Amino acid sequence: MSEAPDRIVRIDLDAASMGPGDVNADHERRVAIADLLESNQFRPSGDAEGPFALRLAIEDDRLVFDVRLEDDTPVRAFVFALGPLRRIIKDYFLICESYYEAVRDAPLAQIEAIDMGRRGVHNEGSTLLRERLQGKIEVDFDTARRLFTLICALHRRAAA
Fold first, then answer.
1. Is 153 exposed, middle or buried, given 0-12, 13-18 or 19+ CB atoms closer than 10 A?
2. DSSP state of 60
3. Spatial separation of the C-alpha atoms in residues 157 and 20, rounded to whole Å
4. Which residues contact 140 (CB under 8 A, 6 or more apart)?
5. Which residues of 2-23 are buried (b: 16+ CB within 10 A; e: fewer)?
6. Signed CA dihedral, 81, 86, 88, 89: sign only
7. pTM for this entry
8. Degrees, nearest 5: CA angle 2-4-5
């Protein structure tokens, strides 16, 4: 694990935002959290120095990044409209469903093609997330990818 101060050392997904999820989505969520905690770059605007704890939630159809210090001292909460991410999240869900369905019985070439599309949509969502965070929270691309996965998990469950 990185020892740089500008990193997330704990991440919590708001239980009130959570609902029933499917096995594949739950696995992706667990992997994203583990990978995120292993390696990330995260720096909220302002003077606070990390490491940081992050709580992600969906409240009133808005995405909430509740940033705290490792000892739970509040730093700042950032609230974003979900609208700009909604289309990409929907596309990501659809392509993930196609991927999981293909894994069961499709030829390898078809699975690989769908997976490339899935990664492309995921990258698009990660890029948009970084743009939405710009000026508020600085993250690298890999951190944005993992956060996008977690936002999708919350969105899936909030919509359920």
1. buried
2. T
3. 6
4. 40, 41
5. eeeebbbbebebbeebbeebee
6. positive
7. 0.88
8. 130
Encode pLDDT of 51-86 as tens digits.
999 999 998 889 999 999 999 999 999 999 988 899
Average pLDDT over residues 84-95: 91
Residue reference for tokens 């909220």: 44
How far is residue 141's CA from residue 133's CA, in Å, rounded to a whole number? 12
Enter the tokens of residue 133.
């965070």
Are residues 150 and 11 in contact, defined by beta-carbon separation less than 8 angstroms?
Answer: yes
Checking if the pLDDT of 15 tops 90, the result is: no
Using a 10 angstrom Cβ sphere, with 0-12 exposed, 13-18 middle and 19 or more buried, the burial of residue 126 is buried
